[in-house]
Amino acid sequence: MTAQLVLQIMLVLLFRQEALAQESSRGKPGCQQKCGSLLISYPFGLGASCSADRTFELSCNKSFNPPKAFLVDNNLEVLYISLKAGTIRVNTPVITDCMNTNIDQVFNLRGPFTFSATQNRFTAMACNNIALISQQGLDVGMCTSFCNITGRDNSCYGINCCQIGIPPSLKIINASLRSIESTNDQKRCRSAFIVDQNWFGNLTNIYSVQKLEQVPAVLDWRPYGFCHSFGPVNSSLCGSNTVCTNQRLCSCIEGYKGNPYLPDGCHDIDECANDSNRCQQICTNTPGKYKCSCIDSWEPEGQYKCMEKKKTMGPYDYKIFTPTVWLYVICISLVLAPLSVCLFKVLKRRKQRKIKEKFFKRNGGMLLHQQMSSSEGNVETNKLFSSKELHKATNHYNVDRILGQGGQGTVYKGMLPDGRIVAVKKSKIEDERKLENFINEIVILSQLNHRNVVRLHGCCLETEVPLLVYEFIPNGTLFEYLHDHRQKPILAPTSDNEERSLVTHFMLAIEENRIVDVVDSQITKDGRKEELITFAKLAYRCLNFSGRRRPTMKQVSAELESIRMSDGSATAQQHSEIVAYSVVTEQIDAWDLTSTSISSSAYNSLTQGRS
């Protein structure tokens, strides 16, 4: 009993590897896939609906522990199924004779099953024994075993054991046991059987088989005829993506794996997901195959390898890399680099110059030149400053240089190359139609030279926003001068009840012929009354609320020049400057260009120590 248990354990261990190989194969979907330790693969199946036909039908006997599977037609226990080899391993009976008599036994396989001639051997155990195999009345094999009284080893070469091969396609066998010579020894049992030679050769004691009732044997189960004409209805046994081998077996085509007997049992193998591909760089899986490709700057070398692309060079290309050529390249680079920098600077300066010219023309530069050229020779003309000069004078328009700012512009403190301190104002002119009036104002303001008037040194028209350069007055603005709480008030409190507007007061005095009352006594004393009345009437006309009735700046300038020429005295010129200043101030207020008017709240200073 112990020997039989050991042999069963050996059977399990021997078939375990082959059984694990079946795990990739599957039974018919919806059918039981396992009976005990046996994995069932289609065309075999438990029941008629789960097998290809009755010859492959199995039954699962659950009275055993674990359950055992049997061929329904042959009543043989199935140990494992091999789809690839087209074989099954089953337990076959052992013929035993302990009565020392001649014995015959017939064994018949039903269906497509035959004993495998390559994996089985007909074996006889014990001595003084003749074992015969016959088929259809003809002897097809015989072996003889002799006795060895001194002992026995674990070999089977005619001493106490003999073996012979069997013919192919053997289905029905008749095994016979005969004695070589008669003997009365009935204690010796002899046996004969067909056994799997692989299993038998791994036994440590071959004589333990005499105690078994069954031994494993291999059966071929190739279907009737060819695999593509299987069964009585001439239907195909192989599924899709399969081929029929020369052994009449179904097999998955290259690149597929699975059960070839199921309709869709063969599945594509993703060679790129495992090490089965031979690609050197990039692997792309395709149905049944895979293809190799290369990364950028590489090209295929054969079917699987890649090589780096080589630049195709002509016969003269190699001469480029000579040391002399490299020396020339370095020298040329050293020469071209400074030239490129100089060219870039020249082009940049040219571009900036064109931009400045564009701004100069847009800001009325040509009109200013025309006005300056038409002025009298004894009139001092204002200077045109460059944008670079003012940029440097204001320290790049630093915020620390801001003197004041308002809705009409921003005033910066600056220092000219000659050391003069000036006030640079960025004016805001949104309407280019006012440029002519702006230029006329610059011309007129440049002609004024009075101790109580901030002098205009010049302007810059090369920037997007016109710049005006005034004389810098360090003693504060007019507002601070009039309303500084630390100084004695200049405005008398008794004047609160008088007319609040100087313009209204002046116009009322002209209409009531009281011009002497509103003019400083020094002016009345130094000048002639006729000239004073002429200046006052001109100012009165400039203060007219109707723009059509007010004289233009050119008309005012012409009348003042006429009065000056008629007199020629310094007193008359001084009177003309003061009156002209008043006229210009009110005219600019009417034009609403406070950016250049001396009445600007951003920068309009008077000196306290210039009188």
TrEMBL record:
The chain crosses the membrane at residues 325-347. Residues 1-21 form the signal peptide. It catalyses: L-threonyl-[protein] + ATP = O-phospho-L-threonyl-[protein] + ADP + H(+); L-seryl-[protein] + ATP = O-phospho-L-seryl-[protein] + ADP + H(+). Keywords: ATP-binding, Disulfide bond, EGF-like domain, Glycoprotein, Kinase, Membrane, Nucleotide-binding, Serine/threonine-protein kinase, Signal, Transferase, Transmembrane, Transmembrane helix. GO terms for cellular component: plasma membrane. It is a single-pass type I membrane protein. CDD domains: EGF_CA. Residues 397-611 form the Protein kinase domain. GO terms for biological process: cell surface receptor signaling pathway. InterPro entries: EGF (IPR000742), EGF-like_Ca-bd_dom (IPR001881), EGF_Ca-bd_CS (IPR018097), Kinase-like_dom_sf (IPR011009), NOTCH1_EGF-like (IPR049883), Prot_kinase_dom (IPR000719), Ser-Thr/Tyr_kinase_cat_dom (IPR001245), WAK (IPR013695). One of its GO terms (molecular function) is calcium ion binding. It is found in: Membrane. PANTHER family: WALL-ASSOCIATED RECEPTOR KINASE-LIKE 10-RELATED, WALL-ASSOCIATED RECEPTOR KINASE-LIKE 21. This is Wall associated kinase-like 2. It comes from Heracleum sosnowskyi.
